[in-house]
Amino acid sequence: MRVPVSWLRSLLPGLTAPVQDLSAALIRAGFEVEGVHRVGEDVSGVVVGRVLDVEELTGFKKPIRFCHVDVGARVHEVVCGAQNFAVGDLVPFAVPGAVLPGDFRIAARQTYGHTSDGMICSAAELGLPGDPSGILVLADRDLGLDAGLELGRDVVAALGLRDIVLDVAVGYDRGYCLSMRGLAREVATAFGLTYDDPGLVTDQHALGGSASDGGCEGQPGQRGHRVRVEDGCDRFVLATVTGLDPSAPSPTWLQRRLVLAGMRPISLAVDVTNHVMLELGQPLHAYDAATVTGPIVVRRATTGERLTTLDGTDRALTVADLVIADDSGPIGLAGVMGGLATEITAGTRDVLVEAARFDPVLIARGARRHRLPSEASKRFERGVDPGLAPVAAHAAADLLVRLGGAVVGPVTDVDRRVEAPSITLSVGFSGRVAGRAYAPEVVIARLQDVGCDVNGTDPLQVRPPSWRPDLTGTSELAEEVIRLEGYETLPVVLPPAPAGRGLSAERRLRRTASRALAAAGLVEVTTPPFVGAQVLQAIGGGTTAPALVNPLSAEESLMRPSLLPGLLKALDRNVRRGLADVAVFETGHVFLGAGSTASSPGVVGAPTDAERAALDAALPDQPSYAGLVLCGAGASWDRAVETVLLLGRALGVMLEVRAGAAGAFHPGRCAQVLHHGTSVGLAGELHPRVVTALGLPARTCAAEVDLDALVAAAVAGGEVKAPRVSSYPPATVDVALVVDMPTPAALVEAALRNGAGELLEELHLFDVYTGPQVGEGRRSLAYALRLRAPDRTLTDVEVLGARDAAVAEAGARTGAVLRS
Questions:
Q1: Are 330 and 296 contacting, i.e. CB atoms less than 8 angstroms apart?
Q2: Which end of the chain has the lower number of beta carbons within 10 A, N or C?
Q3: Which pLDDT score, from 0 to 100, does residue 781 have?
Q4: Distance CA 626, CA 640 (A)
Q5: Alpha helices of 264-351 — where are they, by DSSP H?
Q6: Which residues neighbour 653 within 8 Å (Cβ) at sequence distance 6 or greater?
Q7: How far is CA 304 from the centre of its chain?
Q8: pLDDT value, residue 355
């Protein structure tokens, strides 16, 4: 909302704070000041002058006048082409040296055979709305309550042309601040000022005529225009104003306020309703009473009805629309926009002023359905003060009487309000929410600043004001106390973590898995879970993945049964952007099986237990996997295998590998990852067919393991023990064992580990040899064994004994013999 500071100060006479402090106070109160605009500072040297005489110059192609203008200090000669002023009129006069908007500087000059020593200004030349071809004739009414236009007075100051406008963003739950009234209350609270709320109901707001609580047509004693409310409205006030002078213009001060607030002046009646809306927050609508036939009815539209709104658009209505109607049918879209048939025209003399409170939900839906957001709907959908309608109607009628010579007629007031219940609030609740203590008197004072009626001691009985429909519970009341006391006063305290509510063992293991892969030099990525059938076929994954009913893209309409498609796509993207060496990993859910269908439970009420069970049963299995891909320098199939083994060691799970085969992997460079004989994944180099089909770098490697299975094994195995750190030196021995070619190296390694016993600290394969020295169909596997004791230096006998025991165990399990 655009907030002219001069308008704000008129509601708060004691407000003297500079604009910077005012802006900071609004920000502290929870509003965002998006901009500070200074207007009128580009006008200077324009004063009030009186036209002393007018001489009509002839012989020119257009009418020209030569005038003398008295500005108090001296009389100026001026040539002017406008015809709408007369002798004795007060006009804005730009003396030589004056500056008008656009850096237009005024100087004396010779024109039409005379010296023009200045310029009489039009409204447009001063940055005001108005006819640029006519002079702005000044009158006391242009100053509002400040009468007196002395000659030589600065026009900028007299007309309030110089002002500062704050652009304040108002949240959806702060609809009361879409008005000068609401923002003035916030500013008064921030600076500790006394605030005389112009929106409170007083005796002076009892307009002429009588009011009724039923508003039924033909009700006895009802003298105002007949009104019937059928739906969507709990307060409807209709004031009759007669005898309006159709030629009465809106005064300059009123037009100026509207322009500064971002609205366009139209006519006196319309400008008055807009001014009241901006000041009080109550949207009004003015009807030409001569065009309204029969009683006014607030009802739902019927199918087939149509309405031409003020913007000239013919709109088809439905039963979802709330309308204002008379005997001729709909004459307005309630709370959104009026109808063209009853608009105020240049000949309107009798006006019906409507002030109402409509259902916020109906108004919001109607404005969106017709794509017709308006200043009125913006306020109604946020909630308008139901007690404000008679006050706003009185304010509008009063302005029409003062500015347009009108007379206030009968008033109809249909009041169906339901009193909001009071809220029970513990005095200490706000402090418990904020993490700091608030004295009881502070809590009470802040709630009263908001406008609440507070009774009792502890607990308090709090009745929110009618203009705050957002205050519905204790949390909202506590927020107001905290907000007004200042968010900056809240302590920064880390809340204590309750015992037993930290990460579960399973969650800690999953984080350990990610950290282990990152420590191995891989970068974690997150890829979308959607894949296409062509990618799955390329990696040998088939097309049995679950299909999406409403995919974002037809090319990726399946849920991933593997992490590899997304990882390979990420690798390809990075390679295409110039990164030759890529090593990335991801942990996430995959979707195994096509799943099935289940009937929709609908939107009325929560699903039953049976419906939930059916929905769950229709879902495919969704285990968590860990996957990685490598390319470029340092990428090899054995690195992929070793990274998977490292992951197992980080989780405390002993994994084994043996030669494997899968559609996506190279047949001779693929390892099957096992845990206690059960396959949990694959690792190796991708098949050349896959690399070619997907356009990947040669020798791209990958791995994928069932993370759920690894975590379950780690949980079953208990806490991972920290490695022992011994201060005694290790002893390293090498053994080369000859085995049959089909014998997996993993079996040999497992046998060596088991035979070496507790003294074995590390074991790794460092050489594989095939050739005539070991014989046809056999190969040599060379292992390095590192032995160490925690409490002593090993003797030669202990080292050789551990080595011999390891070789013997390998021979017994795999038929391995020590290479000579």
A1: no
A2: C
A3: 93
A4: 12
A5: 268-280
A6: 675, 710, 713, 714, 717
A7: 37
A8: 94
405 close to 241: Cβ distance less than 8 angstroms:
no
Question: Is residue 584 a contact partner of residue 523, using CB atoms and an 8 Å limit?
Answer: yes
Average pLDDT over residues 123-129: 80
Task: Write the DSSP assignment of 15-44 as a string of letters.
Answer: ----HHHHHHHHHHTT-EEEEEEEESTT-E
pLDDT tens track for 476-525: 999 999 989 888 888 887 877 777 777 888 999 999 999 999 999 999 99
- Token pair listed for 725: 């750190």
Q: Which amino acid is at 300?
A: R
665-697, pLDDT tens digit by residue? 998 889 999 998 899 999 999 999 999 999 999
- Cα 309 to Cα 289: distance, rounded to the nearest angstrom: 17
**pLDDT tens figures, 411-463:** 999 999 888 889 999 998 998 988 888 999 999 999 999 989 999 888 999 99
pTM as predicted: 0.63
Distances (CA, A) of 510 to 78, 673, 714: 87, 19, 10
Provide the pLDDT confidence category of residue 140 given band limits of 50, 70 and 90: low
Q: Which residues pair with 322 in a beta bridge?
A: 300
Nearest to 759 by CA among 797, 708, 722: 797
Q: How many CA atoms lie within 13 A of 84 on its CB side?
A: 14
The answer to whether 155 touches 119, Cβ cutoff 8 Å, is no
User: pLDDT tens digit string along 563-580?
Assistant: 999 999 999 999 999 999
**Which residue, among 344, 798, 295, has the nearest Cα to 806 in the 3D structure?**
798
Q: What is the DSSP string of 176-242?
A: GGSSHHHHHHHHHHHHT-----TTS--GGG--SS---SS--TT-TT--S--EEE-SSEEEEEEEEEE
CA 386, CA 128: separation in Å to the nearest integer? 35
